[in-house]
Amino acid sequence: MIPFTKPIIEDEEIQAVTSVLKSGMLAEGKIAHEFEKQFGEYIGTKYATVTSNGTTALTTALEAMGIQPGDEVITSPFTFIASANSIAILGGIPVFVDIKPDTYNIDPNLIDAAITKKTRAIMPVHIFGMPCDMKHIMEIAEKHDLLVIEDACQAHGAEIDGKHVGSLGHVGCFSFYATKNILTGEGGMITTDDEELYDKMLMIKNHGRGKEGGYSHYQIGYNNRMMDIVAAIGVTQMKRIKELVTKRRQNAKEYDKFFSDFNEIMPQVEDHGFSSGYHLYAPRLYSDKITRDEMVSALRAEGVGARPVYALPCHKQNTYLNIQKWRWAKFVDYPDYSQLSLPISEEVGASHFDIPVHPSLIKEEKETIQEAFKKILA
Ligand SMILES: Cc1ncc(COP(=O)(O)O)c(C=O)c1O
Q1: Residue 206 in contact with residue 221, Cβ under 8 Å?
Q2: Is the CB of 154 under 6 A from ligand 1?
């Protein structure tokens, strides 16, 4: 089976980790700070700080933004559940706004109607690495005095007009989970230009510890830090980030060209000036001859590691259907998510599937994938 992902760990990563282990300085320290410096420079923000994973990047940032129980945060239903959960963990209410059928990203034209007196922030999610329409989203945010937290957990290397996502909202959050464009196994990063938010985030992720270090604490916080052992992998991966993203994009563009001959397959659309990081390549299937699930099974039978990804959008997940069982429900008036109809996210959920686009794909594997489609759709 051609896997949908293949982590690239080379001798250099192993040596970097070994050297941290030998140094005896295992926890967050100078290697993590080097990773922050390099990643911040790459994304183009003044500040960057590591976290233990992408979810803690999101919760740290949301908490620094002042999200309180009962506050509403507008986000996409078509995402990994961590986007919504990071809001709900803090007692916030995820307000799901439907997506655009071509980009699979939140539809900015629907955001205004979802804004209430309780709305505090917008969390666009650059799904599969495809940038959201940040210009439009920032205009809405400015008009309503809302903060914008970009969930860029899948979008390392994604750009709009040459600017990296993660630098376009007030805060950007990244994940370095084992399948991501660059990885550390588990790991995260928050990027921002806002010094005040940055200072708050440093406290929140480190038990409210003051800048002077030691055992002076000023507020309740968490341990959302990253170990230097982990950061050493990140620093090494940074040397290859451009090359890794370029390879993903090349693979994706080959697929786009190939699928232009098939009416049944509609790739995710990259708008003019937008550049996806192609964390995943996930087209939709429109056919009356074969269902999406049959397509996935047929591809797998041909040795292609295809999958439906978010077949169930967040509002259809038991987590949100059963939100009344969540501890904050005693204090927070949640909507009845079962009444929510978000037809585009449901339709994309039912019609999309992903195929391997990772940078380790070799020519023969790409040929096998294309031959599999030709055979199945013949
Ligand atoms: C869109 C999105 N948001 C948030 C997360 C959470 O990141 P992590 O798994 O590192 O906690 C992920 C991770 O896979 C993700 O894909």
Answers
A1: yes
A2: yes
